[in-house]
Structure formats: C-alpha cells, structure tokens
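Issue 218. Parser rejects a valid record. Input:
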Amino acid sequence: MLIGLLAGSAAYAQQSAAPAGSTGQCKDGSYTSNATKRGACSGHQGVKEWYGAATTAAPAAGAAPQAAAAPAATPTNTPKTTAPIPGTTKSSGPQPPANAAPGGGPGLVWVNDASKVYHCQGDKWYGKTKAGAYMSEADAKAKGYHPDHGKACTQ
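Output the parser choked on:
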C-alpha cells in the first residue's frame, strides 16, 4: 500500500511540474500537447508518461495530492465506436469520378496529361482524370509518360 501511495505522489509531482497544456512527457524529457498518445513523442524516443487531458496549471501548494490525482488516474470507460461520424469522411486523398471516359479496353492505358502518369485497366483512375486519353502502353512510354506508382501494366 505504501508503494502505491509513493508511486501516486511521484506521478502527481511530475504532472504538476509539466507546462500548462501538456498531455504527456517524452522519454527525452520534453513535453507534448498532442490530443492523442499516438505519435505524440515521435522523434523524442517515445512516450514516458501520459497524462491524458491537458493539464491547466500547477495546483496550489496546499492542495492534497491524492484528491487532485484521483480524477486523472481513473480510467474512462467510454466505448470506442467503429461507426463513422456523420458528415465526416476518412479518405486517403481525392476520389475519382464515378464514370470513366468512353473508350478504353484491353491493351490500352489512360494517360493523364496533367501529371504525365498512365493508369492501367482496373486502376481506380483509369479513364477518370480530368484531362487524358487512351493509348497503348508502348505509345505512352514513347511519349514520356510513366506508370502510376512505377507499376507497368505489362511485364
């Protein structure tokens, strides 16, 4: 029991010494104000201590350490949901339009005139960029186009 009290007091002492607005301390001694633990101390050897909610300011010297530390030490039992929040989308970037340009087919690639990239049949951008045309892969290479992400259509 004595060890638990000493450990709680030590954690409280570290948190009270933290700058206002910090949510954790990194292993190199610096502090972070990231909202989440993930990536909070990237480049600082990882997270040493996570306080959770941002600390506002150090409490008065007369305040009882156990009373102040108790709310922060209590874990929240808020369940994590996997359903998306309405009005938000999780996307990795721009999405292509639903309909592809007419034409295309086996043996043809779609060349994007703006980026000088060509897309193979079955690619999500095949026939769907704003400015482009269908041509053979050999013609695309001859005109200086390069494959999307360096992956040629034919091997």
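Fixed in the parser; the record now loads. Residues 20 and 30 are 13 Å apart (CA to CA).
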